Amino acid sequence: MLHNLLALDETYTCRMRVADKPGALRNLAILFAHSGDSWFWLLGLVLLWWFGSPSWRERCVWMLVGIVFTALIVFAIKLTVRRRRPEGEWGAIYRRTDPHSFPSGHAARAIMLAVLGLGMGPAWFGVILLVWAPLVLLARVAMGVHFLSDVLAGALLGLVIGLAVLWIIPLLF
Fold first, then answer.
1. Please, which residues have CB within 8 angstroms of residue 165's CB and are 6 or more apart in sequence?
2. Quick one: pLDDT at residue 1?
3. pTM above 0.90, yes or no
4. Which has the closest alpha carbon to 149: 105, 83, 90, 103?
């Protein structure tokens, strides 16, 4: 049964792949695959905290907490599962720094941020993140650094973490 599911996962992952196909779709996938990088979000949130209003500072703090918490949980699961990334050339930095693919940290982070954006507002910010997050998931598979099941598991994890952070915020204030 598990063997059949993994074979199906690999089949759909291969069908979605554009890493070896030059063109606009590949370029978009590269953009979205990198847009979920933690360093990008950490830098952006620190800048927004520095220059933003008090309400944006609070959002930034909770998003930073969510990013760190998500990273710790993803890292622990990756060290336990140790699933190798799909074979490929693109994403050498990801392959060198983190050879494990399950679950996708980018997917978990993107969905967690979308949940926090929707939960903390403003509405336009949440909607932007809600549109962006699935594109990150698709791009990670399209560029060959994750299997489809990696991003689906990451998305589920990000959803749970995002909801947990939203649940914790009122308890602390």
1. 62, 65, 66, 69, 112, 115, 116
2. 83
3. yes
4. 103
